[in-house]
Amino acid sequence: MGHLVGKDIFRELGRKIDGMEMRAPWNKRLHAILKELYTGEEADVVIKMPYGLSTFEQLERATGYEKSSLERVLDGLTGKGLVVDLWLHGAYHYAPAPLVVVGIFEFTMMRMEVRLPLLQLLLQRPAGDQRARLSKFPGYLHLPGRDHR
Questions:
Q1: Long-range contacts of range 10-14, CB-CB < 8 Å, 24 or more positions apart?
Q2: What is the reported pTM?
Q3: 89: domain range?
Q4: Regarding predicted confidence, which is higher, 121 or 8?
Q5: Which own/partner pairs from 72-76 qualify as long-range (CB within 8 Å, at least 24 positions apart)?
Q6: For residue 83, what is the domain's CATH number?
Q7: What is the pLDDT of residues 133-143, one digit of tens each?
């Protein structure tokens, strides 16, 4: 990860994700979401991954990580649903998962401990938006037009 020292690795990750099937234009909110979802090491691996399916050996060559380190990082990424792992032809194949997928809560958020700051980032709306929002009571949503006092 040394070559990215001094650079914003999450900006590089944003560029990588924006180049995938589902575009994710760069902004402050995307930056904050990426910092919540990925560690610096995970971001570095995803940046170096090819866009398509790759075997573990291909990822070792592409990332320059040693086997045990890469296994650990991929376990974390697949566990959070940020990298897809498919068993094909007797071996796992890996690919970065698109950040914007239908059912992101089921695919990614239900696989990891979701901290309130991440949830707030994902549920932020423009000023004046009256859709459901997080309630002041943990675990509840406030629905527009309903008084929950």
A1: 10/34, 10/35, 10/38, 10/43, 12/43, 12/47, 13/38, 13/43, 13/46, 13/47
A2: 0.66
A3: 2-114
A4: 8
A5: 73/41, 73/42, 73/45, 74/45, 76/39, 76/42
A6: 1.10.10.10
A7: 444 444 444 44
